[in-house]
Amino acid sequence: MGMYEKFLGFGVVPFLLILLVLLATGIARKQIHAVISLLMKFNFTINGRTIYLFPMIAIINLVTIVSLYYELMEMHEPHDIAAKTQYYERLYRTYRNFLVNATSATLICQIFLTGKRYNDYAVARDKLQEVKKLQKNQ
Q: Any transmembrane segments, and where (predicted)?
C-alpha cells in the first residue's frame, strides 16, 4: 500500500465522514460551514475556465476508480500456490483502493452538496430570526 492509499484511507475518508456527521447533526454547523465554504470557493482559472478544487478531488477519485476497475478486469486466477498468494494480495489491495476512492468521492460530493444547501438555509434562518425579533419588539 502506497503513501497515497494510506493517506486517503486513514486520513481523508475518516475526516470527511466525521465532517459529514457533524454537519448532519448540526454540531458547530456555522463554524464548520465557514471552513467548507472556503474549500468550495477555492478555485483556479485555466484558459478562462474556472475549476473548483473540491469537486476536482472527487473527479480524481473517479478516474482512479476507473483505472482500478480495469486492473481488476485484467487479473486472472493463477494455478501456482505462490502466485495464488500474490494474486489474492493484489486483489485485496485493489479492491480496498477501489472502495476507499469510491467512499472518498461519495463523501466529497455529499459535503459539497450539503455546503451548497447550507447557503440557502442560512439565508432563511437569518430572515426567520429577524421576523422573531420584530414580533418580540411589538
A: 52-70
